[in-house]
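In this section we turn from sequence analysis to structure. A common task in structural bioinformatics is to predict how a protein folds when a small molecule is present, because the ligand can shape the pocket around it. The inputs are simple: the amino acid sequence and a SMILES string for the ligand, here coenzyme A. Study the lines below before reading on.
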Amino acid sequence: MPVHIEKISEKDKKEVLAILQSFWGDSKIVVQIEIFDALSLDGIKAVDNNKILGICHYRISDKECEILTLASLNPGQGIGSALLNEVEDIALNAGCHLISVTTTNDNLNALGFYQNHGYQLAALYPKQVVISRQLKPEIPEIGYHGIPIRDELRLEKVLK
Ligand SMILES: CC(C)(COP(=O)(O)OP(=O)(O)OC[C@H]1O[C@@H](n2cnc3c(N)ncnc32)[C@H](O)[C@@H]1OP(=O)(O)O)[C@@H](O)C(=O)NCCC(=O)NCCS
């Protein structure tokens, strides 16, 4: 698929917000008791014919990169992989030795996707989403595959 990856810029704000809203209700992302406004993070987009088909936001700190959003509007066509490869390259070029991501227990697609890309389970935070809901009450009770959203799982990949 001829998507290309570019940095998200200020002019993308409206389109990116609409994507964030469709996946997470709004631009607020809660990860392990921290709350982020994704619109204020560094991000990349997958673009085809001037349309954004996927986004990924991340932060880099202390030589580690943390993925905070990754979403694909056309699953199963390589968009998520292209974004993941690019954010790993960005992290490597910034001198990072580790990249991580946190997802929830219901997100079986993401758990498979990241593991197929070399990520390993690194930590389980049981019932963490109960705390996340205090910061973002809109987090639904039921997630993918009808599974109650309850726990957070952190995956990591050593970069080389
Ligand atoms: C997880 C997610 C980002 C993956 O994005 P995607 O665009 O479907 O990713 P890809 O197409 O690159 O890969 C998905 C699968 O399709 C397969 N695939 C990739 N390119 C393909 C192609 N051209 N034809 C057929 N299959 C393909 C991959 O092997 C992959 O399989 P796997 O998940 O078993 O590893 C996407 O499912 C998503 O947006 N989920 C909702 C948001 C979310 O939960 N994000 C993660 C938490 S941050």
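The mean pLDDT is 96. As an exercise, try to locate the residues that line the coenzyme A site and compare them with your own expectations.
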